[in-house]
Design brief:
By secondary structure, the protein is α/β, with parallel strands linked by helices. Helices cover 29% and strands 24% of the residues.
């Protein structure tokens, strides 16, 4: 299983380098996020866990800012082997830190997991059954079990939606995968 996951990560890494055309990346990100914000579970949500994207992921930066005036937006912060959640209060309260160089909110830790209605989950690859392949560090595998009642949406570029993602017993399935044709 580990070998299959490693192979799929390698294949996706190659496809990501081919996909880095800024115009395609930005236009597809916009389409995917438009589909996300039209989703009934997102529209109904008050507290949303998003992620501040890396340059090879669906670009969430403007989306976070846009929705932060209407919803409570949480972002993960890498602390050791875990993700802490913090409330997004604006770009001025973000700090680039950690091993990934991701801009992270600097505010208070958020631990009211039961209040989270909707989670947007990044991934390397997804399949039609809702299986997700992450980057291999297990951050979301450890976080998601703490938030069982939230609706989970994986978002990805079309090339990241694959026939099958190798899944293990601890892998948590998404409720939906949002991408474009």
């Amino acid at each position: 299983m580990k070998e299959k996951k490693k192979e799929l990560r390698k294949r996706m890494a190659l496809l990501k380098t081919l996909h880095k055309s800024t115009i395609t990346h930005q236009s597809q990100s916009a389409e995917i996020l438009a589909a996300l914000e039209a989703h009934p579970a997102f529209r109904a949500a008050n507290t949303v866990l998003l992620y501040h994207s890396l340059n090879d992921e669906v670009d969430t930066h403007a989306f976070i800012q846009k929705w932060s005036s209407e919803k409570r937006i949480l972002l993960p912060v890498v602390v050791g082997d875990d993700l802490e959640l913090r409330i997004y209060t604006g770009p001025e309260d973000m700090s680039i830190s950690g091993i990934y160089g991701i801009a992270e909110p600097t505010g208070e830790i958020f631990t009211d997991y039961a209040a989270i209605d909707f989670i947007v989950v990044p991934g390397v690859a997804f399949d039609a059954k809702g299986n997700r392949l992450g980057r291999g560090k297990g951050y979301y595998d450890r976080l998601l079990p703490r938030i069982p009642s939230a609706y989970k949406a994986g978002i990805c570029f079309p090339f990241q939606f694959v026939e099958e993602v190798p899944a293990e017993s601890f892998d948590i399935r998404m409720d939906t995968i949002i991408t474009i044709q």
